[in-house]
Amino acid sequence: MIALDPWAWAALALAAVTIGISKTALPGGSILAIALFATVLPARTSTAAMLLLLIVGDVFALITYRRHAHWPTLLRLAPAVIAGLLAGFAFLALAGDGIVRRAIGVILLLMIAVTLWRRWRQNRTEAALPTPGGLVLSGVYGTLGGFTTMVANAGGPVMSMYFLATRTPVQVFLGTSAWFFAIINLIKVPFLAGLGLFEGHVLLMDAVLAPLVVVGALAGIRLARRMDQRLFDRIVIALTIMGALYLLF
Questions:
Q1: Contacts of 131 (CB under 8 A, 6+ apart)
Q2: pLDDT (tens digit per residue) in 74-124
Q3: Are 124 and 180 in contact (CB under 8 A)?
Q4: Is 73 in contact with 136 (CB distance < 8 Å)?
Q5: Residue 227 DSSP SS3
Q6: Predicted confidence (pLDDT) per residue in 193-215, tens digit
Q7: CA distance 231 to 159
Q8: More exposed terminus of the chain, fewer Cβ within 10 Å: N or C?
Q9: Quick check: helix, strand or coil at residue 129?
Q10: How far is the C-alpha of 1 from the C-alpha of 79, rounded, in Å?
């Protein structure tokens, strides 16, 4: 087991609960967990430790929302996401932690700016702009999502911006996200294992934290049932901005 101070364990416990909530109620909310893990643990170790806890959360997300996924969206994103995963693996193997974090922060802020600009144009013109469902824009979001999820488990905010930009209803948003990240996180396991990041102390630490992910996931299910679309969108955008600023600075 990694020797950590009590405050560090408390931070990891809060992060584990947040992971569960993000999986069943607030996609993109895991950015807080990313920040907490990266504060307590070395960056590469935090990426591996978080991945296994995210997979635990994925199980509950699939149980709850598996029937609400929009599969044409997933299939459209798949080629670009695979390309992003490969690019992220190369970047993770070669780049330093500081460069990785700042790059992700810039990407997230750009995605937020694009999404907010599109909504402002729609409200001003009272006409629907073309949604980013075409191959070009879905390719951009998919590549960035694959890249950021590989290097820092931070693909949630990027994909949240994609689903928000297409004005996806809450249940479809959660169902499509659930399948997307369940598949992607399983694909990432052999890549990180190849880098030797799943050491014994990491697995033991995750075994201690996993029950807290379950608690968070169950709480998130109740929260999602009471949340309206406008509040949901605002919370996701706010969490994404906070996470992007943390990673950038």
A1: 165, 166, 167
A2: 888 889 999 999 998 888 778 776 776 677 677 767 767 766 776 676 666
A3: no
A4: no
A5: coil
A6: 888 888 888 899 999 999 999 99
A7: 18
A8: C
A9: coil
A10: 38
